[in-house]
# Entry
Amino acid sequence: MILTGCMNISTPTSVPASQTPLIANTVIPTPTLLPLASPTAAPDPRYVQKCVKIEDQVVSLKDVTSGTILLFTNPPENQPFLLDIQTGRKYLLPTEVKNPTFLGEYVSPDGNKFAYVEGVVNSEYKFDKAILWVTNAHAEVLAKLRFNQGLGNNLRWLDNDHVIFYFDQTGVDGTVMVVNPFTGEQQLIFNKLPNLVTGDLAWDVNWRAEYSKDLNWVAYLGSSNPAGGSPIVYDVKTKKIIWQAVTDQNWDMSVWSPDDSQVTAIVWDDQTTQSELYLIDHSGHAKPIFVMGRKQAFAPSWSPDGNRIAFWNNHELMVYDLKADKTTSLCIGNEADRQYPPVWSPDSSQLGVDQYMDEQHTVLINIQQGVGYIPTEIQGIATYPNIWMNSIP
# Structure
């Protein structure tokens, strides 16, 4: 599994960054407050169970799916490579050091480009430089930018030409940098976000602000209590909070839909250990999509076509269908301490997850057919590969 982390960041050595005006922390109206459902509430009637049948026989990925995934060579090399599922060909990713540390990675919206940040440590084990790479599915370099120290975390694509990541060296909490890796153009965004949680948080959500692709909306964890954070959706143009949950206990980030029309929000009550999943639109309307009482929804993952959301409910894999307005349990369990977001195939028809019950399996699930497979190529890997892109024809 690729690791992400929050590192010391310095100004890049390539094209100077332009700066947006600092948005003052203005007086904001009372936001929409979302009360938690009662922990004794009846089960959501939209919830159904449709168990996936896991095939007993181990199969090759090429027999059940296609595309390109990211894997690593065996220790001690641990070199990253892209595997074309259908041809079985391996393409070693370019890095500047052996045993590289990845600080962030993401596939472009069209599924054809892979961006990742390689962090390079010095003799004192501190990050003294970073390289932003962009390759195609054959690991051929499409763009490369060098920065003179480590970069921030949460790298992702805004569109097929721009990436965004958190940038914390400015001293303004919530700062992000937008980079066009093909032209070298860079832009720092200094929006001062009201009540942004600062400092280290649990899990891996520290120092994260999720901007929409047009940069007009941002979802983040905000609170007056530094021990936790409630999800907030903020309108950058009007400088107003359009929605905020009432709880101060939350450690999971919101995720924008592929078309940016809605954002997920995990609403958590630490006292009842209840966590529910909502969709928030630009008007601030909150639609409950998983409210069952005393459940723990987290790690949501949108399908590339925007029609489904896969997430974990405690140790149970769930899929919400937006068109049918129905949440389905696939009866796939994971009793590990932490479950990672499910990984969608580029065509949105399949899911890759880990199943930790009596023993660990890496499972590929065909959503429509309700069938799961145990693929030979990725057995023994701690987590399902989190990069799945198109192959080159």
Summary: The chain is about 0% helix and 40% strand.
